Amino acid sequence: MKHMLRFGFVVSLVLTSLLLAGCIGESKTINYTIGIINPSANQESTVKSFKEGLADLGYVEGKNITYIDHGPVDAGKIDAVAQEMVKAKVDLILTITTSATLAAKQATAGTDIPVVFIPVTDPVGAGVVDNLMKPGGNITGITSTTPEGKRLEWLLQVAPKIKLIYIVYNPNDKSSIQALKTVSETAVKLGVELITREVATSEEAKLAFTNIPEEVDAIFLLPDYLTNANNAYTLQRAIELGLPTSGPNTQIVNDGALTGYGVDLTIAARKQAARLATQILEGVSPADLPVETAELYSAVNLKTAKAIHLDISDAILRQTNIIIR
Asked: What percent of the chain has pLDDT over 90?
């Protein structure tokens, strides 16, 4: 009798295990659709990393996941693209930047379509979520602290002769305004001055970077998709003028900025955003998934330093997380 009971218990365990395995496997066989809203050509590598992260977790494009991804979206079309995602009844929307996230929030209001954002500097202040630990609603994602003060300090450590810094900003972008406020306060403490120029379109931004005041010693780029739309041109222009540049993330240092201090969005997208998306696809409510904070890194481009005839000390290099040689 004992042997029969033991045998029955073992059989029960095996059947339960098989049933659970089947349930887990089932979530990987459903063909999910994810919509992507990315208003920045500079963040295509972030989108790629997000897809790679999902593939690492078993969601492979063409097999069990489909993406609606139009590539970089013009600023004026973000709302329309968000509405398109809702009409397509996607299973999840990935948004990049605060503006894209707010557009997705408005478009998905009254639906059960979840949204994962990367990065939003101040999700609560921007009105994206109610609380970082308990986002509520249908949205969660990755935030970054506001390192603009530390980033300015890092630029001045790398290029200590800087006294006058040029900043172009978009007054309609909350992240840009918050960053400018932080930089302005830090500049006073560090004894450097700022020249700021307000722009409303990417064309105005390009013109602002074409006509850089002769007296400036450096360019400080804010985390704003509009002013970053012409980064390739801006960075080349800075090198031509021999000006150090500071970018709001580490990817831009790969593109030619002298320094960067902030989030490595490719890492955050692959390791964090992809994991959050997977949890949501497998049944966890975004309302219960805390907003995660991305890690910060310092970066220096030695090729750019050489091009603008700036010597970087060994002491600085020892402090640098990412060095482009």
From this structure: 76
